[in-house]
């Protein structure tokens, strides 16, 4: 953690990316998303919360350009639209290449972009950020689940993306590891000033991490409610056990129940 | 649960014990019933024939091994090459795959005499070794190239990887365990292909491979030499198999599940 974390400003201004009226219907007829509007503001940490199958992951895939929306538009600010988009993506699984070392995995985005000459220093820096210094030459199978996820985050950060998309990255980890990675993610977010879109199905995780929780309805996925979590950063175990936290969790849980109830 | 060193010792000692038992039994039966060597030579006579006929047999061994290794090398190049081509172009795959299957399912024993009519004998023998060996490489490589982790494939897409990068950095490494599995099968099969063609060429051929020696010794009722040649073929097959297993182990031991010894 940084010694002196700056108070993170809730930035306003033009959105980093704006989805409007986005719908996605898969070839098999499943309507994953319908008329979804979402503005991601620069520098914010926003969570998409919903039950599985509500299209949260599809939203991330559309933002990442891995999936095309069937209807609606996705708008980038002019500056970002011009060049190649710098996006980091963290999947639910660590998704590391088992045949490559941790350093090899983290180097991959630079290698694919033809940035190999600057790689060693940037790889070292990315590994240091997630606390994996000393594991550069390890293979993924030699690491614990939490460390693999750290390697995956280091890989997402190595290209210095403006926007970090995280698809339930800690869902498969045990609670102790998840809490620690939650704290580490907050520290990274505060020190690096990235915009983070975090997908989760955990009310508690979304409240703990985010400035904004967007509750989605299942089938078809739409925004049901948007709740601001106004607790100050840095957040730590004191926040996790506070009455404020419990109150936010109750509000978000009720919204989620409402979203599920709307399903019928 | 046995400790690993004991287990390894047993794995080495038990087959040797079985071999010793079998050879002793064979020797005793031949001696006890006074079986003449032109019916069944004892193991001692077979070994001494290997030594006394070494000049002839070693020359034949080299001929057969050369054909086998050449056939194997062509099978690897052809199998992996064709699989990559199929992977890159569906039209080529649709056009050619059925013929690869036909080549595989037509018994090589029936094809060999035809090849011997149209090709000079060394080429025909080589062709046989290639035909039987290439399909497992093709089939396994195809399976491996299609077994890429979908999330990893998405990651490569996200970072704008070229087709060549996807092939070289993702598909071929992911397929490596499958390719090596194919090679293990192909090594033994190319020996079989070479032997089948030599036998088919028979006395008409000008070749002097080990299989030809077996056929020739059969006509001359030189049964000990038949056994000696058979023994050498067997040893050649075993050496090929273990060489390929070793190669596979060396390439996979750092990362692949198949090479990991788990502590219970």
| Unreliable spans of chain B | none
Mean pLDDT of chain B: 90
Which class best fits the helix and strand makeup of chain A? Answer: alpha/beta
- Strand % of chain A is 15-25%
Q: What would you give as the CATH superfamily of the largest domain in chain B?
A: MetI-like
Summarize the biggest pleated sheet of chain B. none
Number of helices of chain B: 10
- Find the count of extended strands of chain A (DSSP E, 2+ residues): 9
Average residue pLDDT of chain A: 88
Summary of the model, kept short:
Helix content of chain A is 37%, strand content 22%. Chain A is an alpha/beta fold and 264 residues long. Chain B is mainly alpha-helical.
What does this structure look like?
The complex is a heterodimer of chains A (264) and B (264). In chain A, α3 packs across α4. Chain A is α/β, with parallel strands linked by helices. Chain A folds into two domains: 17-86 and 162-261, Rossmann fold, CATH 3.40.50.300; 96-160, no CATH class. Chain A is 37% helix and 22% strand. Mean pLDDT of chain A is 88; it is low at 1-10. Chain A starts with 16 loop residues before the first strand and ends with a helix. Chain A has a six-stranded mixed β-sheet with strand order 5-6-7-3-8-9, sandwiched between helices. Chain A has a three-stranded antiparallel β-sheet with strand order 2-1-4. Chain B has two domains: 1-34; 39-259, MetI-like (MetI-like fold, Orthogonal Bundle), CATH 1.10.3720. The longest helix of chain B is centred in the C-terminal third of the chain and has 39 residues, at 163-201. The radius of gyration of chain B is 23 Å and the shape is flat. In chain B, 37% of the residues are buried. The model of chain B has no long low-confidence stretch (mean pLDDT 90). Chain A binds chain B through residues 61, 64-66, 84, 87, 89, 91, 93, 95, 97-100, 108-109, 111-113, 139-141, 159, and chain B through 149, 151-152, 154-161, 165, 169-170, 173-174, 176, 254-257, 260.
């Amino acid at each position: 953690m940084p010694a002196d974390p700056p108070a993170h400003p809730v930035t306003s201004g033009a959105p980093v990316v704006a989805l409007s009226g986005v719908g996605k219907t898969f070839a098999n007829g499943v309507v994953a998303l319908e008329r979804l509007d979402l503005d991601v503001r620069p520098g914010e940490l926003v969570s998409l919360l919903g039950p599985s199958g509500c299209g949260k992951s599809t939203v991330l895939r559309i933002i990442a350009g891995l999936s095309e929306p069937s209807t609606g538009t996705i708008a980038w600010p002019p500056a970002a639209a011009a060049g190649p988009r710098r996006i980091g993506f963290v999947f639910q699984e660590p998704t590391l290449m088992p045949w490559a070392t941790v350093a090899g995995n983290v180097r991959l985005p630079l290698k694919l972009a033809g940035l190999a000459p600057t790689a060693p220093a940037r790889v070292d820096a990315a590994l240091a950020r997630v606390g994996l210094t000393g594991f550069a030459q390890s293979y993924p199978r030699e690491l614990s689940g939490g460390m693999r996820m750290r390697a995956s985050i280091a890989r997402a950060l190595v290209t210095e993306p403006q926007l970090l998309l995280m698809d339930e990255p800690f869902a498969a980890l045990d609670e102790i590891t998840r809490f620690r990675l939650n704290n580490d993610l907050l520290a990274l977010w505060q020190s690096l000033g990235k915009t983070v879109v975090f997908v989760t199905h955990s009310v508690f995780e979304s409240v703990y991490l985010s400035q904004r929780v967007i509750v989605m309805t299942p089938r078809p996925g739409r925004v049901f409610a948007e709740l601001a979590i106004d607790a100050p950063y840095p957040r730590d175990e004191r926040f996790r056990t506070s009455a404020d936290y419990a109150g936010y969790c109750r509000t978000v849980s009720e919204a989620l129940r409402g979203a599920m109830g709307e399903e019928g | 649960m046995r400790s690993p060193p004991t287990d390894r010792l047993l794995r080495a000692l038990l087959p040797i014990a079985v071999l010793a038992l079998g050879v002793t039994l064979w020797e005793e039966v031949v001696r006890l019933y006074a079986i003449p060597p032109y019916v069944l030579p004892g193991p001692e006579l077979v070994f001494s024939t290997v030594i006394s006929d070494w000049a002839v047999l070693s020359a034949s061994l080299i001929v057969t091994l050369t054909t086998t290794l050449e056939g194997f090398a062509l099978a690897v190049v052809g199998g992996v090459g064709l699989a990559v081509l199929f992977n890159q172009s569906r039209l080529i795959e649709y056009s050619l795959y059925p013929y690869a299957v036909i080549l595989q399912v037509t018994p090589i024993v029936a094809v060999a005499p035809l090849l011997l009519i149209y090709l000079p004998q060394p080429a025909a023998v080589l062709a046989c070794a290639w035909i039987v060996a290439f399909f497992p490489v093709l089939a396994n490589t195809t399976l491996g190239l299609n077994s890429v982790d979908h999330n990893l494939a998405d990651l490569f897409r996200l970072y704008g990887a070229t087709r060549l990068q996807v092939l070289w950095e993702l598909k071929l490494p992911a397929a490596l365990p499958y390719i090596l599995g194919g090679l293990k099968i192909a090594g033994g099969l190319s020996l079989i292909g070479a032997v089948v063609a030599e036998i088919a060429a028979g006395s008409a051929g000008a070749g002097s491979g080990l299989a030809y020696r077996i056929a020739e010794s059969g006509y001359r009722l030189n049964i000990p030499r038949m056994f000696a040649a058979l023994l050498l073929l067997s040893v050649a097959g075993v050496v090929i198999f273990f060489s390929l297993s070793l190669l596979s182990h060396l390439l996979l031991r750092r990362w692949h599940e198949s090479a990991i010894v788990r502590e219970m």
